[in-house]
Amino acid sequence: MKNHVIQIESLSKKYRLGIISTGTLVRDIASMYSRYFGKEDPNSVIMDFNGTKQLSNREVWALKDINLNVQQGEILGIIGKNGAGKSTLLKILSRITSPTKGIAKIRGRLASLLEVGTGFHPELTGIENIFLNGAILGMSREEIRNKLDKIIDFSEIEEYINTPVKRYSSGMKVRLAFSVAAYLEPEILLIDEVLAVGDASFQDKCLNKMNSISKTGRTILFVSHQLNWVNELCTRCISIENGEISNDGDPKIVIENYLKMDHHKYTKGTLSLSGAQNEYNTGSLKISKIELIGENGKPKNEFYFEEYITVKLLIDVKSRLRNCNISVMIGDLRGKIILFSHSGSIGSFKGKITKGKHESLTRLKSNMLPGVFSLYIGVGLESGQSLEWLERIFDFKILKIGRNPDSNYHFDTVHGYVNDNSIWEIKKAN
């Protein structure tokens, strides 16, 4: 069709896991020697955190034969678990990486928000980066100047607009990046999960802005694990699984089918992890084990209503961390966070974690109403830098049975997520 702004045909992307250049002449020669004689390359082995050999020169297809057409004015939601290929697809469309096979045709000016700070020169100020990004999009200096006040106002960082971007927090970078992308009017806008960094009020502003952008005929590709956002905002949705499009169509239907898939592996409340779990891991630490422990002191994945749940994390810290916070979150199966707790709220915790193995214990009261919920774990610095982010890493169930066997709950008539613990007072009026 004539109004297609993105046409993707048989698109595939292959990555080779292993070391291409070892960094030293001696190791390079050893690699050449081993390959010549048909032996295992000692320098092309990926090790896990325990020093165990995991992979050797393994080829992984991040995308496999993707065919996709996107029409002008569409808001296309892209969902899928970590490692499914969502970010790879947007990186190819942004020309950050090239496909192994296939073609992608793009008609129109394209701007992308893929990672915090992407497209910004760290040494330049915020206002200088606005002009730089506008120039990249082919806009004149006068065109950019006419939109400058709106960009700064929307970003809410006017006080820091003449400060080098390298001194910005991750939240400030996201604010500026989205404002630039929204007001410099690219015809196609690619967004990959970066809005999760901002605060709730700014997220709402961004979602409203994206909705208004789409009404002007511009196209948006939106990658997010916040399924409620995708459902509310997008006109169409695709799910990607193992590098392939598994579903395409109405967002509500695609999301429902996605939620039916089994994404999680756990056994009786214990989950052991090996290696970095996602692209957010910086290598500064590793969460090696997660346990959900009930009041009986044993790991489990089903809890009584109002039972206390202890979230136990085993963390291997590679070097001393300052101003570090650990967050434990619970969300519904659509990706909406309904409970948030972080270590910074502990008065005695100063945010310093020394090198070595640590155990984190978080005790939560299961005030959620009966249903299935997901556990999210985040570790980051006060500056906004994320060290680890594990989303929907663990599913667990709240039963229709209370802690007290004599309790008589009527859950079938109750709807919602959280059982409120508000203090009520009813007294006779004067």
Structure description:
By secondary structure, the chain is an alpha/beta fold. The protein has 2 domains: 61-260, P-loop containing nucleotide triphosphate hydrolases (Rossmann fold, 3-Layer(aba) Sandwich), CATH 3.40.50; 270-413, Coagulation Factor XIII, Chain A, domain 1 (Distorted Sandwich), CATH 2.70.50. The chain is built from 8 helices and 20 strands. The protein has helices at residues 25-36, 86-93, 126-136, 141-155, 170-183, 200-214, 227-233, 251-260, and strands spanning 4-17, 45-47, 53-56, 58-71, 75-79, 101-106, 110-113, 188-192, 219-223, 236-241, 244-249, 270-272, 285-293, 302-305, 308-317, 324-331, 337-342, 356-365, 371-381, 386-402. It has a 6-stranded mixed β-sheet with strand order 7-8-9-5-10-11, with helices on both faces. A hairpin with a 2-residue loop joins strand 10 (236-241) and strand 11. Helix 3 packs across helix 4. The chain is globular, with a radius of gyration of 24 Å.
Q: What's the CATH C level of the largest domain? A: Alpha Beta
Strand order of the largest sheet: 7-8-9-5-10-11
Structural domains: how many: 2
Radius of gyration: 24 Å
CATH-defined superfamily of the largest domain: P-loop containing nucleotide triphosphate hydrolases
Second rung of CATH, namely the architecture of the largest domain: 3-Layer(aba) Sandwich
Number of strands: 20
From the spread of the alpha carbons, the general shape counts as globular
Helix-and-strand structural type: alpha/beta
Look up the CATH topology of the largest domain.
Answer: Rossmann fold
Spans of at least 5 consecutive residues with low confidence: 18-22, 45-56
Main β-sheet description: 6 strands, mixed
Strand content: 25-35%
Number of helices: 8
Residue share in helix: 10-25%
Secondary-structure element series: EHEEEEHEEHHHEHEHEEHEEEEEEEEE
